[in-house]
Amino acid sequence: MSTALAAIPSPPRGVWEIGPIPIRAYALCIIAGIAIALWWGERRLVARGGRPGTVLDVAVWAIPFGLVGGRLYHVATDWHVYFGPGGDPLGALAIWNGGLGIWGAVALGGVGAWIGCRRHGVPLPVFADAVAPGIVVAQAVGRLGNWFNQELYGGPTTLPWGLEIYQRVDPATGLEDPIGGVALDLTPVAVVHPTFLYELLWNLAVAALVVFADRRFRLGHGRAFAVYVAGYTLGRFFIEMMRTDQATRVFGDLRINVVVSAVVFAGAIVYLVLAPKGREDFSAAEPEEPDRQRDSA
């Protein structure tokens, strides 16, 4: 196998240690993505009339719900990995090893956001439009975690940006460990399509599209969020078909995320067509100061 064309090296170990504490690259990528989404969403919501700090207040509800939903979707669609023959049921809890389904994260995260928005007096569509580009950038950053974990790539390729895959093992046991292990043999076992990189770049393009469309057409009533959903699912539909990792198959031999992408894309387009045009006239009322509250009592 020629490796001269492989421009992307095998990722370094996905786990570092500070004393007895393991630091996992996948988790760091998720945290970095969330931080970017919160910062950008805050700026956009304030520009739309929201109170400073509201995005963080709502995120207290949305993020935990989203993480649980993302993991539940992953476990449900890849159930055989955990509950099939030779599976590891306890591995369903090991979120640090990778495995978050965006559909579950958005769905259950949306429920958490709805609760947070009700508690803080923000219409959910206004909040969704504000955080839309930040969410898709967060997804892009999260895809870097797949690189560290040596996962979610495609078939063999000779393209200049192919990814070198090495067999990594735990030096102490000799057992295969693609996340925390080391490559004892420097000959790659494969050079493959880095589909996580394709999705990363696509997500950044979708974020740019959302910002452009939002400014150009003054999107409101959840339509900026719908642009994000439609754009993301369009790319995911084709990228998903390039992947070679194990996945649940439906309707014969279709990966389940291909089908879900098509259905969600269609729903987003319908929403874009039917939702009210223009942007809401939203200005969050400032909470009353304690002295004023006593005077009005």
N-C termini distance: 80 Å
- What is the arithmetic mean of pLDDT? 86
| Count of alpha and pi helical runs | 9
How many individual β-strands? 8
The level of helicity is 55-70%
The major β-sheet equals:
2 strands, antiparallel
Order of helices and strands: EEHHHHHEEEEHHEEHH
Strand order of the biggest β-sheet: 1-2
Uncertain runs with pLDDT below 50, 5 residues or more? 1-6, 287-297
Binned strand content: 5-15%
Rounded to an integer in angstroms, the radius of gyration calculated over CA atoms is 21 Å
What structural class is derived from the secondary structure elements? mainly alpha
Query: Quick one: overall form?
Result: globular
Regarding quaternary structure, what we see is: single chain
Question: Would you write up a description of this structure?
Answer:
Residues 1-6 and 287-297 have low confidence and may be disordered. Helix 1 runs antiparallel to helix 5 and helix 5 (124-148) packs antiparallel against helix 6 (195-217). This protein has 297 residues and is mainly alpha-helical. The relative contact order is 0.14. The strands form four sheets. It has a two-stranded antiparallel sheet. Helices cover 56% and strands 7% of the residues. A hairpin with a 2-residue loop joins strand 1 and strand 2. It has nine helices and eight strands.
